[in-house]
Structure formats: structure tokens, C-alpha cells
Amino acid sequence: MQHILNVNNKTLDLASPQVMGIVNLTPDSFSDGGKFNSIDNALAQVEQMLSDGVSIIDLGGESTRPGAPDVAESEELNRVIPVLKAIKKRFAVMVSVDTSKAGVMAEALNYDVDIINDVCALKNEGCLEVVSQTDIPVCLMHMQGSPRTMQKQPTYHDIIEDIKTFFHQRINACQQVGIDKQRLILDVGFGFGKTLTQNYHLLANLSQFHEFKLPLLSGTSRKSMIGNLLNCDVEQRLAGSLTTAIIAAQQGAQILRVHDVKETVDALKVLQATTDNKLLSKEN
Ligand code: 7PJ
Questions:
Q1: Residue 66: partners with Cβ closer than 8 Å, 6 or more residues away
Q2: Which of 58, 139, 141 to mutate to test the pocket of ligand 1 (most atoms within 8 A of CB)?
Q3: Is this structure's pTM higher than 0.85?
Q4: Concatenated DSSP letters of the chain
Q5: Residue to probe by mutation, ligand 1, list 119, 144, 216, 244, most atoms within 8 Å of CB
Q6: Ligand 1 lined by 24 (C-beta under 6 Å)
Q7: pLDDT in 10s for each residue of the chain, 284 residues
Q8: Lateral strand order in the sheet of 138-141
């Protein structure tokens, strides 16, 4: 199955896995929190990620960490829109906005956002309608519960089958409002209402979700599924993050959402060297 993302005069070939770089715009990610500093900081991060080989920049202004409080729409707009504008002015890179609010999606669309990345899979009020007015790609992520409650006691009948049922339902909901299936990207939502064991079971079986014939996005970078396994803090999760990224790529995930772009791009090149016949035939 060949997947190519075509949006706003940009093209991304998903025949080999592509890296989505996380630019976190929640205040705790900046030492001084000032608005102009946060724009400069984000632009510097984007510039570095571009030279490291990123394909998509994911902007997030709403913390979806387990237990995180809700962020008001006006606050999220203030965090995300000025940075989206500044990136669009300076760089030609594809930009996704990580949001679950219809108002933020609508405003981001006014500033030529390329992908909507919604951890609530367009379930919140107005989201399906806003997205149906456009033709850009959308990532539908699976979550059990809400960020505030999701890690309390995740329960599934059969986690893989339950997530497949969820994807069927959300794909149908999209199609009912006229959102073309071919615009959709699917994500099992690592860490969103899953136990440690369930997260690794999903990672090991990610390829099963290719039955939808849609691109798969995988986001494991620095998450608790690594910290809890290795018993380490967030700044010590690089090796674990790279390993999960490579396993996801081997399972055929087309987009890897990561903090550490350069290291992930390097790791993917090593993986690619084992599968690239052209490289082998050149040497022999
Ligand atoms: C994900 C996300 C993810 C998608 C976050 C974090 C939490 N979007 N946004 N997939 N995670 N599509 O990065 O730790 O896994 S925020």
C-alpha cells in the first residue's frame, strides 16, 4: 500500500518512515515563559529539527499528560497560533497542530496548518464539522477515558480488537460528514488509557492495524511506558525511545512522533540499511 500525503502544495512520501518532531508550547517547557521568547525558542527548535531531518512539526499547546488539567481555548490559541504563524512565515515544513478543540482547529486552518492531530479523534463538539470544511489530513488517536482519568484502570475485552472497533467507528463518523477516508491517519495512542503491559503488547502488534490501509502514526517518545519499564526520569529515556521508534518502524508505522529528531533519523537510517537492496547491491 502506497501512502503519500499531499497538502498545501507539499508532498510527503510515506514509503519510508518519516519523523514528526514535537514542539511543546506548554509553559513548563520554557524557562522564562515570555511570549516572544517562546516564539524564538520554537523557531530555533524547528530550524534545528529541519537540519536533523524532520518531516512534520507537531505543535502542541495543551498538555495531555495523564492527570493534566484542561487548558482554556483562549490560552491554547495564545500559545499555538503566534508560533504557527511564525513557522509558516519562515519555513516550508509541514506543520500539524495537536489539539482537541474545534476553535483551535478552525483558527489553525486560517493559518494554513497542514495536519490536524487530535488525541480525541474528532469526538469533541464541532471538530468533525470544522475538519469536514477542509481537505487536509487528520490523525485520529485512540484514548480510553480522558487525560485526567485515563490511567486509573484501563480495561479492555481484547485491546487490539477494541481499538480496531474504535477506528471503524471514528472512520465511519468522519465519512458521514464527508471527510474522505484517504485523509485519515491512525494512532493507537500509546500511554492514553493503557497499562505498561498493554502498551508493549500494542507495540509488538502494531502491524495488525495496517488492515485499515491508512498510514499509522506512533508516539512513544519519552513516555511512561519507557520510564516505568526502565525506572528512569524523562531525560534518561533516549535509548528506550529510540528502541520503541525502531520497533514501530519495523512494524510498518509510517510516522514517528518524537522529541529527539536527530537520534531517531540516525536510528532509522541504520534500520533502512538492513532493508535497502540498492545499498547492498552497490557494495557487492
Ligand atoms: C501523542 C499525541 C501520541 C498523537 C501526545 C506526550 C503526550 N498525538 N500527543 N500520538 N501524545 N498523535 O507526547 O507524551 O501518542 S501528548
A1: 147, 150, 151, 191, 224
A2: 141
A3: yes
A4: ---EEEETTEEEETTS-EEEEEEE-SGGGSSS--HHHHHHHHHHHHHHHHHHT-SEEEEE-S--STTPPP--HHHHHHHHHHHHHHHHHH---EEEEE---HHHHHHHHHTT-SEEEETTTT-STTHHHHHHTS---EEEE--SS-TTTTTS----SSHHHHHHHHHHHHHHHHHHTT--GGGEEEE--TTSS--HHHHHHHHHTGGGGGGG-S-BEE--TT-HHHHHHHT--GGG-HHHHHHHHHHHHHTT-SEEEES-HHHHHHHHHHHHHHH-HHHHHHH-
A5: 119
A6: no
A7: 789 999 999 999 999 999 999 999 988 654 444 555 689 999 999 999 999 999 999 999 987 766 677 899 999 999 999 999 999 999 999 999 999 999 999 999 999 999 999 999 999 999 999 999 999 999 999 999 887 787 778 899 999 999 999 999 999 999 999 999 999 999 999 999 999 999 999 999 999 999 999 999 999 999 999 999 999 999 999 999 999 999 999 999 999 999 999 999 999 999 999 987 666 666 65
A8: 184-187, 138-141, 115-118, 94-98, 56-60, 18-24, 255-258, 217-218
Residue for grid cell 536527530: 262
